[in-house]
């Protein structure tokens, strides 16, 4: 399965298992979503389980919070992460804090799914990576998969989670992993092991990172599309890097990170989102606080630039192999040659 | 394309900024407020199409006439017992508000909000609902909790944020919550409860339940996007919900004109969405009851949502942080043409021969005494600012279902600081 099919399968499994799981969003019903992630679900599970909504993100999220207060498990889709902002207050002030302010009398077991990230010529309004806005909010969990297998397992965990989860799907890798070389053809997921996704229910726990590549020379922290870009660059330069796919930003798997950086003594952080106040800043601070005496080089960050996502200069903006290679060179210089 | 110089003779455009009719010191004249005769308004069938009853959004449903008799097709024909319960509950709410407002002035809590003059819009409305219907209130609907029997001591514990506060001292005073009584957690962010209530109602419908939802906001809050999103969702999915707009004329110091009230009624918002709308005399408890009952029956029979505008007046300050004499004429309250809801119901019951002035005086005393007793009881659990009422761990609980490592670390930090900052503090565990 590719990532879209895996997400579809995760939703399908959960709808079959639990009547309280409902899907709602712009175009998700009859049509099955603009990325087809919900294709066939309305036909299979009925119009009241998977339905289209008005174009009102405030309404979609507010209504989902109310449905969750009733006892359901809504999975609202925001068509592109760039369009979450009209619904932001319902997430930040309501969903995130309902459990706290009601002393757990009411909870918002909602999973907000949304495609995010760039690299598809989506321009400013179809390319943003807003995850750090949500990691800053107390009470929200933030999950980002990087493979079809993970996407399904993490999504099922998110839907079963009793807390509100932001589930960001890296749309650049919906159909196949992306190495950062925009001028080379993308290979489909079918060629990779992670595309072997069981039809049935399975879970990947929220809050557990994945060491996708073991190594001794440097720890590379990445998530979503950037896991694949990092892997490609590391391989190309023949660096003995340990690449960690964070999978979940909140709650973060600090133990895995700490252990790895203490072993390698070096750390590179990569994300697509803009640099200033991005999640990389948090990661960098944590690594510094916990591993300072083990560090043999300054922590480096590779990120998007602090500009809106440019349409025509997309590939100049994207934190690709050149930017990552340079950073690695800075950290593990003597190893690259 | 118009010619370049075609506009040279036009006066310049001008911007309209609404201004209330009266400011402090002004003499109030309510003669332009149209108050139709009680009993004159038609009562459409609950399954009428919204388009067939469009005039209702400009009219005003009234039951009590100038002689305090109940008249017309909207008379809900309630029993003496029910009406007496309504009167007593409203009187109790008012006595509660008066005392708790004073407690804030005495420094026992940080904040308080009264609903003086608006008691009918929550008490009569809640009485017309089933006890298991779900309410998504704003901050002036304490009356619902009184109708549903929430103990006053619990309310005061919340207001004092003391050690018995069910919400663990996390919410601003009066931001109550009771799942058991169908009273949703109040948000300080205006109008957010509107789409949530619609979502709850949609879930109830999707599950084939029989319960409906009701929500309340002020007329000022109708300008929020949430209100309009909620209206759209309610109409699109025919949600079983009653959406109450309590038009008390003032949103802190801004008069209703800043929410669009100069040009049309708030009930008329319903017409634009194709849903049923009623404008009601909000100081007439019988009219509020009748309208709510009508809308509830409509919702319960799959005839969809209703918007009810309660035309009323905020007789007191917005909150303990507000001084209305700084922005409105003192006469406004005195001369409010729809009177006071408690007085009107009292006179109605006296007129019916089931109540008397003496009984009412005794009731007021009883209500004051009951709050006094409840307050004393609650004070035993502490007041705001006196003592560290909640164990510090509670600050970190309920952010998530399970506490992640970073909150555990911060919780330990807070407890360590406690020993340094308050070495003598009695552990309130
Ligand atoms: C989103 C938001 N904006 C502003 C405020 C500050 N605020 C609190 S009450 C209020 C006035 C509300 O007026 P209205 O809706 O008419 O209700 P009323 O107080 O008259 O009952 C304002 C502006 C808030 N709580 N939330």
TrEMBL record, chain B:
Domain (2-oxoisovalerate dehydrogenase E1 alpha subunit N-terminal) ranges: 11-50
Listed cofactors: thiamine diphosphate
Domain of life: Bacteria
Residue ranges, annotated region (Disordered): 1-48, 409-429
Broad enzyme group: oxidoreductase
Keywords: Oxidoreductase, Thiamine pyrophosphate
Boundaries of every Dehydrogenase E1 component domain copy: 88-383
E.C. number(s) listed in UniProt: 1.2.4.4
SUPFAM superfamilies listed in its UniProt record: Thiamin diphosphate-binding fold (THDP-binding)
Catalytically driven reaction(s): N(6)-[(R)-lipoyl]-L-lysyl-[protein] + 3-methyl-2-oxobutanoate + H(+) = N(6)-[(R)-S(8)-2-methylpropanoyldihydrolipoyl]-L-lysyl-[protein] + CO2
Keyword presence, Amino-acid biosynthesis: no
Signal peptide residue numbers: none
Function: The branched-chain alpha-keto dehydrogenase complex catalyzes the overall conversion of alpha-keto acids to acyl-CoA and CO(2). It contains multiple copies of three enzymatic components: branched-chain alpha-keto acid decarboxylase (E1), lipoamide acyltransferase (E2) and lipoamide dehydrogenase (E3).
Family the UniProt entry places it in: Belongs to the BCKDHA family.
Protein name as it appears in the record: 2-oxoisovalerate dehydrogenase subunit alpha
Organism name: Parasphingorhabdus litoris
């Amino acid at each position: 399965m590719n990532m879209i099919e895996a997400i579809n399968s995760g939703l399908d499994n959960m709808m079959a298992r639990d009547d309280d799981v409902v899907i709602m969003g712009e175009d998700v019903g009859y049509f099955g979503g603009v990325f087809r992630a919900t294709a066939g679900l309305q036909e299979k599970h009925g119009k009241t389980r998977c339905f289209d909504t008005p174009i009102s993100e405030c309404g979609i999220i507010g209504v989902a919070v109310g449905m969750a207060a009733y006892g359901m498990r809504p999975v609202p889709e925001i068509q592109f992460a760039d369009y979450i902002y009209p619904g932001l207050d319902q997430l930040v002030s309501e969903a995130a804090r309902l459990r706290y302010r009601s002393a757990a009398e009411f909870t918002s077991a909602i999973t907000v799914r949304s495609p995010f990230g760039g690299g598809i010529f989506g321009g400013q309004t179809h390319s943003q990576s807003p995850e750090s806005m949500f990691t800053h909010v107390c009470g929200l969990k933030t999950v980002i998969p990087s493979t079809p297998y993970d996407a399904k397992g993490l999504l099922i965990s998110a839907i079963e989670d009793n807390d509100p989860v932001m589930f960001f799907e890296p749309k650049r890798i919906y159909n196949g992993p992306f190495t950062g070389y925009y001028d080379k053809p993308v290979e489909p997921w079918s060629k990779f092991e992670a595309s072997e996704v069981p039809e049935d229910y399975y879970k990947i726990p929220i809050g557990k990172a994945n060491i996708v590549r073991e190594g001794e020379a440097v720890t590379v922290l990445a998530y979503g599309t950037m896991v694949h870009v990092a892997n490609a660059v590391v391989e190309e330069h023949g660096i003995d890097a340990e690449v960690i796919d964070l999978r979940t930003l909140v709650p973060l798997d600090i133990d895995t990170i700490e252990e790895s950086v203490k072993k390698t003594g070096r750390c590179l952080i990569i994300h697509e989102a803009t640099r200033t106040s991005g999640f990389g800043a948090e990661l960098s601070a944590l690594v510094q606080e916990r591993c300072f005496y083990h560090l043999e080089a300054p922590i480096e960050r590779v990120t998007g630039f602090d500009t809106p996502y440019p349409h025509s200069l997309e590939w100049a903006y994207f934190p690709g192999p050149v930017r990552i290679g340079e950073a690695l060179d800075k950290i593990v210089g003597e190893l690259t040659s | 394309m118009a010619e370049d110089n075609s506009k040279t003779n036009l006066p310049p455009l001008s911007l309209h900024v609404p201004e209330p009719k009266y400011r402090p010191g002004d003499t109030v004249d309510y003669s332009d407020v149209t108050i139709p005769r009680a009993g004159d308004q038609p009562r459409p069938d609950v399954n009428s199409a919204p388009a067939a009853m469009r005039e209702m959004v400009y009219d005003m449903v009234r039951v009590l006439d100038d002689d305090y008799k109940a008249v017309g097709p909207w008379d809900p024909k309630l029993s003496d017992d029910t009406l007496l319960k309504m009167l007593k509950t409203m009187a109790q709410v008012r006595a509660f508000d008066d005392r708790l407002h004073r407690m804030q002035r005495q420094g026992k809590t940080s904040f308080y909000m009264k609903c003086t003059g608006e008691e009918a819009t929550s008490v009569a409305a809640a009485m017309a609902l089933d006890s298991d219907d779900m309410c998504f209130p704003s901050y002036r609907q304490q009356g619902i909790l009184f109708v549903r029997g929430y103990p006053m001591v619990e309310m005061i514990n919340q207001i004092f944020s003391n050690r018995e506060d069910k919400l663990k001292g996390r919410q601003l005073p009066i931001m109550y919550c009771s799942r058991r009584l169908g009273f949703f957690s109040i948000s300080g962010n205006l109008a957010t409860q509107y789409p949530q209530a619609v979502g709850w109602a949609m879930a109830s419908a999707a599950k084939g339940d029989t319960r409906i939802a009701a929500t309340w906001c002020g007329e000022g809050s109708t300008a929020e996007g949430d209100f309009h999103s909620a209206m759209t969702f309610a109409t699109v999915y025919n949600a079983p919900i009653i959406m109450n707009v309590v038009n008390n004329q003032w949103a802190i110091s801004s008069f209703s004109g800043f929410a669009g009230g100069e040009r049309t009624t708030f009930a008329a918002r319903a017409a634009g969405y194709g849903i049923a709308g009623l404008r009601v005399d909000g100081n007439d408890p019988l009219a509020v009851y009748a309208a709510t009952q009508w809308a509830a029956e409509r919702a319960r029979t799959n005839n969809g949502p209703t918007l009810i505008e309660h035309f009323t007046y905020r007789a007191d300050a917005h909150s303990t942080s507000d001084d209305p004499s700084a922005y409105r004429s003192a006469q406004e309250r005195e001369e409010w043409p729809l009177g006071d809801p408690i007085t009107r119901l009292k006179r109605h019951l006296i007129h019916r021969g089931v109540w008397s002035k003496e009984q009412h005086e005794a009731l007021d005393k009883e209500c004051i005494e009951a709050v006094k007793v409840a307050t004393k009881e609650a004070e035993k659990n502490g007041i705001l600012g006196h003592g560290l009422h909640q164990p510090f761990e509670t600050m970190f609980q309920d952010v998530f279902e399970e506490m992640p490592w970073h909150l555990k670390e911060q919780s330990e930090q807070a407890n360590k600081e406690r020993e340094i900052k308050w070495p003598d503090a009695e552990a309130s565990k």
